[in-house]
């Protein structure tokens, strides 16, 4: 899947924002929390598709070189994937809105609720590690695609003013 | 076609992982150990009337909550604070490691 850095950045920021909203069910309420989590699953699949080549290449050479940054990334990503899957599975099993929409009624034990809380907390930590390991890329591209264009937008009027000032002496000379 | 296959691969792996976790939780002692903590004892206590072991009452646990701006913002701030702390620690460790590597390289070049 051919993707640009800009698309990657937009998707990553969207996933990050969605994750923060999902991690605060008091803010969204239970219904939005559940449906947004389902949407996050789709976004995570897209994220994995965007990075498919990296996943395949690191999986192939995982055991060849022991100490490497990509290896640490890989382990963190697998842990994050497992935690997210467990969190979503347990969330789905204890959900009220999603299962009710499809007319499904499951009577599961309280342990799934505890597991949901536990894995959600750990998933947040895994997200922190995932974010931190890609922080340089993120900060660089946020500056490149978000901060710099906005800053340039503010600089344009000043440049025009400078241009006008530079033309004025020539007009005086012509007179 | 290629992308469809990739999506199917991801979904298959996810389903296998989810199925494995489900079987693990339902068939081992993890479920009982998770639900025997002090918090679960508190939360599983029925509010009036008798309840079955796997039965869930309405409104007695905080997953069944309604939206509240102040509480939600506090929760989100907590998440952001946790993420900031983790990021700072990881970046600091990376910075220190990079410095050590740089020193080692300079030493190697000097000798």
Explain this structure to me?
The complex is a heterodimer of chains A (175) and B (111). With 175 residues, chain A is mainly α. Chain A has eight helices and no strands. In chain A, α5 (69-93) runs antiparallel to α7. The radius of gyration of chain A is 24 Å and the shape is globular. The termini of chain A are far apart. The mean pLDDT of chain A is 85. Chain B is mainly α and 111 residues long. Chain B has four helices and no strands. The longest helix of chain B is centred in the last third of the chain and has 42 residues, at 69-110. Chain B is extended. The N and C termini of chain B lie far apart (56 Å). At the A-B interface, α2, α3, α5 and α7 of A face α1, α2, α3 and α4 of B.
Structure described in brief:
The complex is a heterodimer of chains A (175) and B (111). Chain A is mostly helical. In chain A, 83% of the residues lie in helices and 0% in strands.
């Amino acid at each position: 899947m051919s993707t640009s850095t800009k698309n990657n950045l937009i998707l990553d920021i969207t996933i990050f924002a969605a994750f923060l909203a999902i991690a605060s069910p008091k803010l969204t309420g239970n219904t939005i929390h559940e449906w947004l989590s389902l949407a996050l699953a789709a976004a995570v699949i897209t994220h994995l598709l965007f990075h498919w080549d990296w996943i395949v290449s690191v999986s192939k050479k995982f055991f060849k070189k022991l100490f490497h940054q990509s290896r640490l990334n890989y382990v963190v990503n697998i842990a994050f994937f497992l935690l997210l899957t467990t969190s979503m599975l347990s969330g789905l099993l204890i959900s009220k809105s999603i299962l009710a929409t499809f007319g499904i009624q499951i009577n599961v034990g309280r342990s799934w609720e505890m597991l949901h809380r536990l894995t959600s907390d750990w998933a947040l930590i895994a997200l922190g590690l995932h974010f931190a390991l890609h922080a340089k890329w993120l900060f660089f591209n946020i500056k490149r695609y978000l901060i710099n264009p906005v800053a340039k937008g503010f600089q344009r009027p000043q440049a025009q003013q400078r241009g006008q000032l530079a033309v004025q002496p020539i007009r005086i000379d012509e007179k | 076609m290629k992308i469809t296959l990739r999506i199917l691969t991801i979904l298959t792996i996810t389903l296998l992982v989810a199925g494995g976790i489900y079987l693990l939780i339902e068939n081992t002692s993890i479920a009982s150990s998770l639900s025997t903590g002090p918090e679960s004892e508190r939360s599983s206590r029925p509010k009036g009337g008798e309840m079955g072991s796997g039965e869930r009452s309405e409104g007695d646990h905080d997953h069944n909550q309604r939206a509240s701006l102040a509480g939600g913002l506090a929760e989100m701030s907590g998440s952001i604070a946790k993420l900031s702390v983790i990021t700072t620690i990881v970046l600091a460790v990376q910075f220190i490691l990079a410095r050590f590597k740089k020193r080692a390289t300079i030493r190697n070049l000097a000798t």
